[in-house]
Design a protein that fits this description.
The complex is a heterodimer of chains A (302) and B (304). Chain A has 302 residues and is mainly α. Chain A has helices spanning 11-38, 48-60, 73-107, 111-116, 119-147, 165-168, 185-204, 209-220, 235-255, 267-272, and strands spanning 44-45, 154-155, 182-183, 223-224. In chain A, the strands form two sheets. A two-stranded antiparallel sheet of chain A has the order 1-4. Chain A has a two-stranded antiparallel sheet with strand order 2-3. In chain A, helix 1 packs across helix 7, helix 2 packs parallel to helix 9 and helix 3 (73-107) runs antiparallel to helix 9. In chain B, helix 15 (260-281) runs antiparallel to helix 16. Classes of the chains: A mainly alpha (302), B mainly alpha (304). The interface between A and B is large, with 45 and 47 residues.
Chain lengths: 302, 304
């Protein structure tokens, strides 16, 4: 289905739709980014339990890395047995800690109520960023379908199958024989939306050094940056994390090799190279078959 | 941002004070006098100048304050603190940590401890407070059990902190708990596997513990230290000593524990270490003394 000629479109379409849409979307993206920065809430307090769990999992994961080749096999084996027990012990510690906190909270009377109330709002703050993006998406799509429908916008340089007709030629139902390459403005919107992600990474770039240092300082001071999944401090989350610890312990038992082989065992061989004494094998000393030969190839045994 | 061919001398020559300070922060260098000179060139002697970037100015003030504490320049540190207090207020957690550091530096440990306790009451997950409480306990030369308890408190929250484990090594060595020191050093090795000095230290601790298995491990770690850094003179001496200790231990051990092959390896290691040491001392004044020591090790090899 190849038509040799292309349809000539009005240049006004380019002037009044293609370029303005592009400019509007760039502006909307920048606005979203800066609003996110301005409206960012203060970092929330991380819990002792979260911190402990995260650092335990990190510490235990070292057995899966390359550093194991610098420690002796016997010590690795003992760690292989000890680390899952360590994780389970940490889980018990966290549970005891939470129980103590609950007990202390009850003793102090109604102080816990303050902690319970803002919970629904705190989870919303974390999702605010995603919400803004989705809301903006919906609004833009509705606006485009309302204002910029009913005409062909452009021809994409690649072939599309018939299945895309319904998606990309929304307002053009009358033109059933039109090539799928000719699309409406809504598809231009989608193209630009996905394409601008890379552009924004370049334009906005990485945050300033001081911001990165502030984030690191927050981690050390026990605060967690807003918008992360671990920020909703609540008994439910802590319990889930303790479950995660148990899972990690099980995973560890499964993933670690049944027999560690560390490169440290051969380090002396590598150091001495030619001077490394050869291992005299004792297996064949008493094997009568190896010391006899048959027929012509009879050789002297030394 | 710092480019790939911007290192410290270039930045200093260019008199780019802010970038010099950032470079020092990023690479975690300890250059207090450099920091103070550049900080004062940037913000004036009283550090009251203004940069366009607020966040950069506050970061510079914090950096200069810590450098001033390093050089015991308490007046400058107080100046930084007052500048920061005007800007961030005294409720800020980071400011309170800095204030407590200044109190520590002027030996007001009780005041510093009070601030850290308050910070921990506000947020029990505050790692900086736990770390500094351990440092205070160490500076006050408290009972080893108390210092170890403080370090345990910190390490329990941050199991993957390699320098924390190294502090544990030093503590355990100071109370002659060599088994504990060996475990802590192994954690350090897992964190920094390519550091030749750590392997050497671990080998020395194993050798102090004694016993055939420990001496075997000591041999291997000394060999690893030499493989990682062939110029480590202490490791060369260590290799000779540890391999020799292994031979002596195996000559006293019961028949079933002795592995002939391992004894041969140990003898080769002694010879290797001795030649390596002699090569280093070739042409120096000490060569005769060192030769005598090495010959002592290598002469009796056949009899062991």
């Amino acid at each position: 289905m190849s038509t040799a000629e292309n349809i000539l479109l009005d240049s006004d379409i380019r002037d009044w739709v293609v370029l303005p849409l592009f400019v509007i979307m760039v502006a909307a993206g920048l606005l979203r980014f800066h609003m996110g920065n301005v409206l960012k809430p203060d970092p929330k307090q991380g819990t002792k339990v979260t911190q402990r769990i995260q650092s335990s999992v990190r510490a235990v994961a070292i057995l899966k890395g390359g550093a194991v080749h610098f420690l002796s096999t016997s010590k690795l084996e003992s760690r292989k047995l000890a680390y899952p027990k360590l994780l389970r012990a940490q889980a018990i510690w966290c549970e005891n800690h939470l129980d103590e906190q609950d007990a202390a909270g009850e003793k102090n009377g109604g102080e816990n109520d303050d902690g319970d109330m803002p919970n629904p709002f705190s989870s919303m703050e974390g999702m605010m960023g995603n919400m803004a993006f989705m809301v903006q998406n919906m609004i833009m799509m509705q606006a485009i379908q309302h204002f910029f429908s009913g005409f062909i916008l452009l021809k994409v340089p690649f072939r599309l199958t018939l299945g895309f007709k319904q998606m990309f030629q929304r307002g053009l139902e009358g033109l059933a024989t039109l090539e799928t390459s000719y699309v409406s403005s809504i598809s231009w919107y989608f193209l630009v939306m996905f394409g601008l992600r890379g552009f924004f990474k370049l334009a906005i770039g990485s945050p300033a050094l001081e911001t990165q240092e502030t984030h690191q300082a927050w981690q050390k001071l026990g605060k967690q940056p807003p918008g992360r999944p671990g920020t909703t401090a609540g008994a439910a989350d802590d319990d889930k994390q303790i479950e995660m610890l148990e899972q990690e312990a099980d995973n560890l038992e499964m993933l670690l090799p049944t027999q560690f082989k560390s490169n440290l065992d051969q380090v002396e061989k590598r150091l001495l190279q030619n001077n490394y004494p050869k291992k005299k094998s004792t297996i064949a000393k008493n094997d009568f078959l190896l010391h006899h030969s048959v027929g012509k190839n009879k050789s002297k045994k030394n | 941002m710092l480019g790939p061919n911007e290192d410290l001398p270039t930045l200093i020559a260019r008199k780019d004070h802010l970038e010099v300070l950032r470079y020092i922060r990023v690479h975690e260098l300890r250059e207090p006098s450099l920091v103070i000179t550049h900080g004062q060139s940037l913000l004036g002697t009283k550090l009251s100048g203004n940069l366009g970037d607020d966040a950069a100015r506050l970061a510079v003030l914090e950096q200069v304050c810590l450098a001033a504490l390093d050089l015991s320049n308490h007046d400058l540190a107080e100046g930084c603190l007052s500048q920061l207090k005007d800007k961030v207020g005294k409720e800020s957690t980071r400011f309170r940590c800095l204030l407590a550091r200044c109190l520590e530096a002027s030996a007001d440990f009780d005041g510093a401890n009070a601030i850290y306790d308050q910070l921990l009451a506000d947020n029990p997950a505050n790692l900086v407070a736990l770390q500094r409480k351990y440092c205070i306990a160490r500076a006050q030369r408290k009972e080893p059990s108390e210092v170890i308890a403080a370090l345990d408190e910190y390490l329990g929250q941050q199991l993957s902190d390699v320098s924390g484990w190294y502090e544990m090594v030093k503590l355990r060595l100071s109370i002659a708990d060599f088994k504990g020191a060996a475990y802590a050093l192994e954690q350090v090795v897992l964190g920094c596997p390519l550091d030749s000095d750590i392997h050497m230290q671990l080998a020395e601790v194993y050798a102090t513990l004694g016993g055939l298995e420990n001496l075997l491990l000591a041999r291997k770690h000394m060999a690893q230290a030499l493989e990682l850094d062939g110029t480590n003179l202490r490791a060369k001496f260590g290799l000779v000593s540890v391999a020799n200790q292994y031979l002596e231990a195996s000559s006293e051990a019961s028949k079933k524990d002795i592995d002939e092959h391992e004894k041969l390896v140990a003898k080769e290691l002694v010879k290797y270490g001795a030649t390596a040491v002699m090569k280093d001392y070739n042409g120096s004044k000490m060569v005769e003394t060192v030769k005598a020591v090495m010959d002592d090790f290598t002469e009796n090899l056949e009899s062991l």
